[in-house]
Amino acid sequence: MEIIRIPRIMQDTSGGHILHGRTVGFVPTMGALHEGHLSLVRRSKQENDITVVSIFVNPIQFGPTEDFREYPRDIDGDTGKLGNEEVDVLFMPDAPLMYPEGFSTRVVVDRISERLCGPFRPGHFSGVATVVAKLLNIVKPARAYFGQKDFQQTLVIKQFVKDLDMDMDIVVCPTIRERDGLAMSSRNVYLEKSQRVAAAVIYRTLTEASELIKSGIIDGVYIRELLRNRLLKEPFVSGLDYAGVYDPLTLDELPEIKGDALLAVAVKIGDTRLIDNMLVNAVKGR
Ligand code: AMP
């Protein structure tokens, strides 16, 4: 596995592959890799000649009170896992090369960024959109892979890729879960043992709501209240940023569930903020 730290060299390496007619697949991450990340890597390996994975803990997507400093980092573990998956290139740029003196551009996606996590994490999605736009311009993939776990993020990325005429496919892959249903996340290591057990309430609650919708309940307000009540009843849940049923294209809240719907929640367990979601179709029953 080739390890590249300099954006210009990454750009030239990708350019060389493209010139030779090879397709490049790209998996951007912040490291502390788990099976969720590796599922994206495997999908990219299946669909492309060359797979590039990036590890970059992006400072501009963290708020001043968020966990940029504490964010889990495990470069040795990550390198081993990516080596085992036979990844071709690991791109690990240093922050000053991504944001040199004088850097002054931001990618801001209106509307979608203002929903769900938007009000609770000001500036987060423009931080994500800016770094992902830079990474896509550096790696120049034919396809880039993202997890449904961060559903709002996938909408933000698809939107700027379309609006800015970037010629690549954005592929969204299913959420990989622990045995009790908790969505895998690098932040799960923050949970103490009892908090970790309690966190299973998130998947249990989403599943219950999804089953109710499939069984014919179309009242979005009823489902929202059910989600809220179930989550807040769990003693280890210390806060609820949002929980509800949303249009999966616009993220507007759905008072009535007629077709595709997104169940989405952001829950605090102790100081750890966890998000999860589930797509459901009221008519097709899936
Ligand atoms: P992160 O390192 O948390 O920024 O995540 C990098 C990529 O992995 C993003 O596209 C995430 O949506 C995706 N990802 C994170 N957790 C999971 C998971 N449990 N299942 C599938 N994809 C995931």
Mean pLDDT: 97
- Walk across the major sheet and give the strand order: 1-4-3-2-5-6
Q: Which molecules are bound in this entry?
A: adenosine monophosphate
Integer-rounded radius of gyration: 19 Å
Low-pLDDT ranges: none
Q: Briefly note the structural class of the backbone.
A: alpha/beta
What is the N-to-C succession of helices and strands?
Answer: EHEHEHEHHEHEHHHEEE
Q: If helices are DSSP runs of H or I spanning 4 or more residues, what is the number of helices?
A: 9
Q: How many strands, what sense, and barrel or not for the largest sheet? A: 6 strands, parallel
Give the N-terminus to C-terminus distance in angstroms: 40 Å
Global geometry: globular
Helical fraction equals 25-40%
Approximately what portion of the residues adopt beta-strand conformation? 15-25%
How many beta-strand runs? 9
Write structural notes for this entry.
With 286 residues, the protein is of the alpha/beta class. 36% of the residues lie in helices and 20% in strands. The chain is built from 9 helices and 9 strands. It has helices at 7-19, 35-47, 75-84, 95-98, 124-139, 151-163, 193-198, 201-214, 220-233; strands at 2-4, 24-29, 50-55, 89-91, 143-147, 169-173, 237-246, 260-269, 272-281. It has a 6-stranded parallel sheet, sandwiched between helices. Strand 5 (143-147), helix 6 (151-163) and strand 6 (169-173) form a beta-alpha-beta unit. Helix 5 packs across helix 6 (151-163). The relative contact order is 0.13. The structure holds adenosine monophosphate. Adenosine monophosphate is lined by residues 29-30, 36-37, 39-40, 146-147, 149-150, 173, 175-176, 183-186.
